[in-house]
Predict the structure.
Amino acid sequence: MMLTALNDFARERGLTDDPLYETKPVDFFIRVSAAGKFVSLESTAGEDGRGKPLSIPRLPQRSVNIAAGFFADNPKYVLAYEKDAPKAKAGGVEKRVARLDAFLKPVREVAVETKDPEARAVESFLTSEAERRKVLAARDEDEWTGSELLAFVVGDATTPVHQNPAIRACWERRSGEKRALGRTARCLVTGLEGVVALTHPKLKNVPEAQSSGASLVSFNAPAFSSHGLEQGDNAPISQEAALGYVLALNDMLRRTEQRRFRQGIQLGDGSVLVFWTRASPSEESLLLSWMDPTEEDLQRFTESPLHGLQPGALDDRAFYAVTLTGNAGRVAVRDWFESRVGEVKRNIRRYFDDLRIGNAPAGPTPIYRLLNAVEAPSGRGLSPDVATRMVGAALRGLHFPRQLLTSALDRLRLPPADDRFEREQLRLRVALIKATLLRLPRSGTTPLEVTVSLDKNNASQPYVLGRLFAVLERLQGAALKDLNATIRDRYFGAASRNPVTVFPRLLQLSVHHASKAGENGRWLERTKGEVMALLPPERFPRVLGLEDQGLFAVGYYHQREAFFTKRETAASAESDAASS
Amino acid sequence: MASTTGRRFRVRARGPVACFTRPEMKAERVSYEVMTPSAARGVLEAILWKPAIRWHIHEIAVLAPVKWTSFRRNEVNSRATVGRFDYAADEDRAQRNTVALRDVDYVITASFTLLPGKAGPEDNARKFEDMFERRLERGQFFHAPYLGCREFAARVEPAEDGLLPHEAGSGRRPLGLMFYDFVFDVPGAPVRPEFFQAFLEDGVLHVPPRAQVLGGDS
């Protein structure tokens, strides 16, 4: 289903319109005379310094093998160029010659076949080593990288040789003949008879995979094939379909100026989630900007919170998401998900609602930021697929991995590493705790209630204890001002896990703090009284379980934020009074 | 053409993990959403198989919602080879990902026919049918029945009446082209995989008869 959906996507968006040609930036034209003499090397680079995108005959699949392009390729093939030629190993020379021969062979055949003067000019140019040297000499030696894309023009022509109609016809016929040599079978992607692709084109830009590209469908060890079937025969997929799904994925995985993946979300270090819809490109970019906002998006969102996630006309269309990760030469699927656009919008909205905490505006938080906030400082601790599972759960509307709760709580126990981001980090951690708690599958009857901001009526013991802890911290702050280690740094972990061991002592301490804190202290004492009134008299629980520790953290955060807000509104009231 | 007049058995197979690997995704395994006919055949053959019979799967009802899980394992790169004893798995392995199904529960409806030419004079369908029923009820098997991969054991028992598919009443849902089975028995030709267009209709996968799939486009 996945490959079919991808292939359909490629066809709908017109990516496979031209299976024999592809558009690539051609860096240089080699201009040769009708007699095959080198005339000039013309750079096509525009203002941005990149070559002009041109349609060229599709380049073959290459790894260590030798396979040449048709009338256009890089200098290794066109000019037998080798970057470190002097230092080349014994095999180097042979390989250079073999590459040139591979490139020359079709040119020679076409020249004989069509008697086309342009093809002949290219042929006689290629056969002369002296002429080829002139090309290399036309640029500084250091400037050649070996990966420039070169094409030919003959005489005064403006169009390159490979676009000459006679040569195009030749390319199309040759490709047809080559295909006819393949075995035909029913393609398991399209369901139609087709020539089976023995090996598939490669995906580029998949994290953790080889940079030269990796295959999604491959059978490169005996254990992967069945019943003596080899390569593509294990899963008959036609060449068109193989090209289609790869073009679709490569298009989505392409790097752009704003994003690492044009239509993908990076999850942790090792994987990427790409998604597409049968709706419209604008729907896709909307969803993308929600799930993985860029800085620019974030600024925009502050003006129009949650706008755009309203039900729309295209909500009934299919939505697909796949999480890919590299495994050296292969690409593995980590997760695959198929749904409707409307469903996904609803789930995304719920995801943001669940994550909302305190008075922060309702806007998206990039996933990497959430995960950074709960990851241990060393970057270790979260298992590699937590991000995949979390995003999968968000899209499906399911519960989050429990591991997030553990990690977030672990991070809360440690003293903050950097004060500057402390408040934001705390918010993200508690937000994640809250969302995880809300979504936990519960065997009991009542769903856990966790509110967005302070809930004075919530008498759940862990929640109230969290609030109490925040009050005590506040009292200490009001009494002692500058402190190296606050009670939070020292006691948060113990207080949330084993309240009975910590709270009696903290309460004693708070009496001293209150007497030192003056006016503020009396008010805080009153708040403390209010909070304590919600607890059973003088009884602190011995142990709190994981979920309760989560509730404790939420209570702590709510109370703490309530103090902040109060101060801020009080401050603004003062400034109002002063200005009037 | 295989007749389907034999007795129809309803067999319930369930287990905590299952992976009905898609052939295109078998290096880094991804399962089909629903048990394939060949996997169902494997379950039945684990309980009773004779050279003289051929199982036909008619329906696979999906009782539990489709849930996924994924994990990585170290697996070997080579196939088991008879007579090779110096094999060291540590030196020849790859870490491979598996996207498998969780908590699956199926009711397989199937029957078998006798193969002309293979069945001896003393064989008859009735005898094997009774044999199968007995074995199923007692929980006997030739090898442990499994859900797609040997390591995902299945609990197999006769299906009671009144079991409802999870997606009952939700209409027709396409599953795409699904692996049907290997075609082993064309003399001289290599083994080849065969596929069919699969749909989940009210939570039930209807499996077309073998002749229809092998006959080309269905």
In short: Chain B touches chain A through 33 residues (CB under 8 Å). Chain B has three helices and nine strands. Chain B has a mean pLDDT of 88. The radius of gyration of chain B is 18 Å.
